[in-house]
Design a protein that fits this description.
With 296 residues, the chain is mainly β. The chain has 1 helix and 15 strands; from the N terminus they run H-E-E-E-E-E-E-E-E-E-E-E-E-E-E-E. It has one helix spanning 5-19, and strands at 31-33, 36-49, 61-76, 79-94, 101-116, 121-131, 136-141, 147-153, 159-172, 175-188, 209-226, 229-240, 249-259, 264-275, 279-295. The model is unreliable at 1-30 (pLDDT under 50). This is DUF3078 domain-containing protein.
């Protein structure tokens, strides 16, 4: 149940802000030039641990994560166009492991175009793309006890593309919900990696793409919890009309940034995914550390 706590936090936050829907919005800190609003952040997080004659145990390790988060939004007249890019890559190397292993690897682009219907509702069309940068491996030990790895994933294997139309509710750049009852979802893979019984991300053996049609709901909520503490929530839900619509795909991200000074922050990144075509259970990723940041 603990995997649902961030989602419950997000939903309670949504209820709170809707109850305050008529309150004055906080002043935006984005730099605005004409109809465009742009804001981004690049970060580098580094961790290192060393042990010598440490009776309690421990393993020397070194790790680092680079991240990029950028928004560029357009608003003029009845038109609204919101775009977001998130990219991150991290590795860890421990003394007793034969390989450096990934701690983070993701690339995401989301774009929502809206035409105003009422004060805060828009007719919308969206595109969402997700994949990874580098190869991924399954790790095991051979009969000699040595660590071995088998390549399992790579760039665009899998790659996910969603596109659909619907309605967008947008209070401001920090709170928006997009509902798309007509959404296509495409899962791309390397055909040479597919497995029997659609065991490789739901794609049939020998094929390179899986096509779905269903309902997509996405929400974005960013808030300043305390001075210099920011919570960014990103939630995406998808149900396939054509097969097992009760099995809702969930992708929830929570990015917490605690500002120390202009260039240093403490960052916590949490993500949980449920997609029974990839894995029949919750996938969970968490990264925590002190990062050097550059905002632009």
């Amino acid at each position: 149940m603990k995997n649902f706590l961030p989602i419950l936090f997000f939903l309670s936050a949504v209820a709170t802000i809707q109850a305050q829907d008529n309150a004055n919005p906080a002043k935006a800190d984005n730099d605005t030039i004409g109809p465009w609003t742009k804001k981004g952040n690049a970060s580098l997080m580094f961790n290192q641990s060393t042990f010598s004659n440490w009776i309690a145990g421990g393993e020397n390790n070194i790790s680092g994560t680079a991240g990029f988060n950028y928004d560029f939004n357009y608003k003029k007249g009845p038109w609204s166009w919101d775009n977001k890019i998130i990219a991150s890559y991290g590795i860890v190397k421990t003394r007793n492991s034969a390989f450096a292993k990934k701690t983070d690897d993701r690339l995401m682009f989301n774009s929502v175009l809206g035409k105003q219907a009422t004060e805060r509702w828009y007719y919308s069309a969206f595109v969402n793309f997700k994949t990874q940068f580098d190869k991924g491996y399954n790790y095991s030990t051979n009969e000699d006890g040595a660590e071995v790895r088998d390549e399992y994933t790579e760039f665009m294997s899998p790659g996910y593309l969603l596109a659909g139309v619907g309605m967008l509710y947008k209070k401001d750049d920090n709170f928006k919900i997009n509902l798309s009852p007509l959404t296509g979802k495409f899962t791309f893979v390397d055909a040479s990696r597919t497995l029997p019984d659609e065991a490789y991300f739901g794609v049939k053996e020998g094929d390179w793409v899986r096509s779905e049609f269903g309902f997509n709901a996405s929400a974005y909520y960013k808030l300043d919890v305390l001075a210099n503490v920011t919570f960014e929530n990103i939630l995406n839900l998808y149900s396939n009309y054509l097969e097992d619509p009760q099995n809702v795909d969930i992708d929830y991200q929570l990015n917490i940034v605690m500002k120390i000074n202009r260039y240093l922050t403490t960052n916590l990144s949490f993500q949980t995914i449920y997609d029974d075509n990839a894995y029949k259970g919750f996938q969970v990723r968490q990264v925590f550390g002190v990062a050097a940041n550059y905002g632009f």
